[in-house]
Write a structure and sequence with these properties.
heterodimer; A: mainly alpha; rod-shaped
Chain lengths: ~50, ~260
């Protein structure tokens, strides 16, 4: 039973790691895109104000 | 404003987005406990069955995403409102992520069970085609063209491309497939109750993740549209809100985008 439970555990770890990395990377990318858009919009607005 | 539009507005406001983020993380934590600790190993597959709790919900989110693309594309063609186009674009992007994840997880699961990372099985092949269709959809959205024409073309691809989704789902019934048929969870379930509960929690957690990602992606879409409006505005000092309002009020006469408003400006 223990043998069944522990065999191939590397594949399970790989699966959950891939899932976690994909979700965290995508959230990070979206936050970066939001920040970049905000900063660029602010820069354009500041240029106009001058 | 329709009920769907009002609900979308509430969910994508900053407090709604934060609440969804918290709920999604809590859901994923609960799902991890259920999948990795509570759920017993399978008699045949042992601990590998735990991959089911991420692979199957990922596939569900891919279907859900492309269903939203389909409905939002129809809504865009009917109303010409930019928000529907933005919703379709956001959902397609999330759908592509989850389709790629589904294929990657399926591959990791297939290696020890089937002895190969990939095989041209009907389910796998139709899923790969689905990924290509929606990568194509995202490519259409990047074609340099009038934003309204681009949105129209994207909507057509979003509607036609959805035809592959039921084919993917039914492929295991229509053709001989290595891939197992979907487990029955409603009525008389054909999986153990603990496993069914873990799968249910995983479905809920991934749905919350989808809603959170959509809220975040829609905010990014709005900010990027606003940036375009800022960059293209020839009227120095005019607040962006006024330009966006112009766009909304003139949308009754046809599909008008920020670029077009400013080109006329």
């Amino acid at each position: 039973m223990v043998e069944i439970a522990t065999a191939n555990i590397g594949y399970v770890v790989a699966g959950y790691t891939v899932t976690g990395l994909a979700l965290v990377s995508y959230v990070g990318l979206l936050l970066l895109r939001a920040r970049r858009a905000r900063v660029r919009a602010a820069a354009i607005a500041a240029k106009r104000a001058r | 404003m329709s009920v769907a539009e009002r609900a979308m507005g509430k969910l994508t406001a900053r407090p709604g987005e934060r609440a969804l983020g918290v709920l999604a993380v809590a859901g994923l934590a609960a799902s991890a406990v259920m999948s990795l600790i509570v759920s017993p190993p399978d008699v045949e597959q042992g601990t590998l069955i735990r991959l089911m709790y991420v692979h199957v919900p990922s596939a569900w989110i891919a279907y859900l995403s492309f269903g939203v693309v389909f409905l939002a594309s129809i809504a865009y063609l009917r109303t010409k409102r930019t928000r529907w186009d933005r919703l379709a674009a956001a959902s397609a992007e999330v759908g592509v992520l989850f389709t790629a994840l589904t294929i990657a997880l399926g591959s990791i699961w297939a290696k020890p069970v089937w002895g190969t990372w990939w095989t041209w099985d009907p389910r796998l092949t139709t899923t790969a085609i689905m990924l290509l269709i929606y990568v194509g959809y995202l490519a259409v959205r990047r074609i340099p063209d009038s934003p309204s024409r681009r949105a129209r073309w994207a909507a057509v691809v979003g509607i036609v491309g959805f035809a592959d989704v039921p084919i993917v789902h039914l492929s295991v019934r229509w053709w001989r497939s290595l891939h197992q048929a979907p487990a029955r969870l409603i009525g008389v379930p054909d999986i153990a109750p603990t496993m069914g509960a873990a799968l249910g929690v995983a479905f809920l957690a991934f749905t919350l993740v989808y809603l959170y990602l959509m809220a975040l992606r829609l905010r990014v879409g709005r900010l990027e549209d606003r940036l375009v409006a800022e960059a293209l505005s020839p009227r120095v000092g005019e607040p962006v809100e006024v330009l966006l309002e112009n766009r909304r009020s003139s949308s009754a006469t046809g599909p008008v985008d920020s670029e077009e408003v400013h080109a006329r400006g």
